[in-house]
Amino acid sequence: MAEQIGIVTGIEPGGWAKVLTDRKGACGGCHSIGGGCHGCLAGSKFESRVINAVGAQPGDLVKVSLPSKNFFKGAAMLYLFPIMALLAGAIAGTWAAGRIGWTETTGGVLGAIVGIGIAVLLLIRLDRSQLTRRYLTPTVVEVLSTDKLSPQTPAAKHACCH
């Protein structure tokens, strides 16, 4: 399960919240190297829109979670689906080119363009679907502190490093 600690910066209608978190790097977390993660120490922040399942309020320190299976399904949709569509389009284009008298290269390139275009349109449609958004969006699962932190306070500045 992918989890992060963040600060609620705003509440939106419909059970949504904006949460400011520290961007995690490839190092695997703040405790992997002595003195803390350099990305965290640089103050790289990321604000995201999450489902506010526990009713957190602005300034609350919260735990945000996304189940691993949802994370991997989202990654597969975003990365693997366009590649598969591109390859399927290229194969179909190559096959169709022989039937209509074009060169295989022309058919393959045009088919790949059509395949990636269809994939992009389908991904945009999926992204706009409320069901998909709820399924692939992180959720606030716990309020850790209600001390009403501001993103500029020292305790919140490097929330991932504590």
Give the helices and strands, then pairings.
Elements lengths: L1 E11 L3 E7 L15 H4 L3 E8 L8 E6 L1 H33 L3 H25 L1 H7 L2 E7 L8 H4 L5
Parallel strand pairs: 3-5
Antiparallel strand pairs: 1-2, 1-4, 2-3, 4-5
Helix pairs in contact: 2-3
Would you give an account of this structure?
By secondary structure, the chain is an alpha+beta fold. It folds into two domains: 2-66 and 137-161, OB fold (Dihydrolipoamide Acetyltransferase, E2P) (Beta Barrel), CATH 2.40.50; 70-133, no CATH class. The protein has helices at residues 38-41, 68-100, 104-128, 130-136, 154-157; strands at residues 2-12, 16-22, 45-52, 61-66, 139-145. α2 packs antiparallel against α3. The longest helix is centred in the middle third of the chain and has 33 residues, at 68-100. The chain is rod-shaped and about 70 Å long. Residues 154-162 have low confidence and may be disordered.
